[in-house]
Amino acid sequence: AQTVTQSQPEMSVQEAETVTLSCTYDTSENNYYLFWYKQPPSRQMILVIRQEAYKQQNATENRFSVNFQKAAKSFSLKISDSQLGDTAMYFCAFMKRDTGNQFYFGTGTSLTVIP
Amino acid sequence: EPEVTQTPSHQVTQMGQEVILRCVPISNHLYFYWYRQILGQKVEFLVSFYNNEISEKSEIFDDQFSVERPDGSNFTLKIRSTKLEDSAMYFCASSDSPPKDQEAFFGQGTRLTVV
After folding, report:
1. B72 Cβ contact list (under 8 Å, min separation 6)
2. Which of A35, B88, B91, B102 could, after both became Cys, cross-link B36 (CB 3.0–4.6 A)?
3. Which residue among A45, A100, A104 places its CB closest to the CB of B106?
4. Helix/strand number for chain A, H first, E second
5. Are A47 and A61 in contact (CB under 8 A)?
């Protein structure tokens, strides 16, 4: 079974500062994907960033980057130069590569960017 | 930008009643999903649907649940006889390939309250 743990229910950061959201997971799979999804208040969940487990290089998307530590089963999200629009619930998710049909989500971290 | 739309945004129903949650996936997408999130808990996979049939389902998706794509545009989730514990936010998602290959797009959810 796959489990995803986000140990920070709530976080806050000053505008323009950097924040890191934590995620750990447990799996016996060797090939899988990891994702961070963002859900702004009353809006859809949207993909922030994706990491393929066989790639050693950490994924980056503009101000968003991950620190993927496969041996430690850790997948943290770093948001640089935080903006007010980053205020949202952030979900870490896991997907097996072979089936690729089902996300396993964490409980989410509610991030508030303070002006 | 195309998006997944869900209706209604909030549904209140009496225990034992049937309820249908509706989703309009993005028009060229082929893979469809339902997830749910009980308040304070993880987002959980319910079912995936491809080529007019269920491709995967979780233990939660028992005989009380069914899905249908009745007209080529809507994707519905039916709960035959609702229980109090069915109260949750239900998310629909779609993608044009398995989400391990392409981004999955989520709707903003239907909050179901069973009283």
Report:
1. none
2. B88
3. A45
4. 0, 12
5. no
Q: In this structure, are residues A43 and B108 in contact, taking their beta carbons and an 8 Å threshold?
A: yes
Q: Using CA atoms, how far apart are residues A107 and A23, in angstroms rounded to an integer? A: 10
For residue B22, is pLDDT > 90? yes
- The residue assigned the tokens 């496969």 is A70
CB contacts of A97 in chain B (<8 Å) are 100
pLDDT the model gives residue A97: 84
Does pLDDT of A98 surpass 80? Answer: no
pLDDT at B44 over 90: yes
Name the residue among A19, A20, A21, A16 with its Cα closest to residue A81: A16
On the question of pLDDT at B80 being above 90, the answer is yes
Q: How far apart are CA B36 and CA B34, in angstroms?
A: 7
Residues in chain B within 8 Å Cβ distance of A45: 91, 106
Does B43 lie at the interface with A, CB-CB under 8 angstroms?
yes
The H or E element spanning position A76 is strand A74-79
The percent of residues in chain B predicted with pLDDT above 90, rounded, is 83
Q: Is the pLDDT of residue A114 over 90?
A: yes
Shortest distance between the Cα of A15 and any Cα of chain B, in A, equals 26
Instruction: Tell me, yes or no, if A48 comes closer than 8 A to chain B by beta carbon.
Output: no
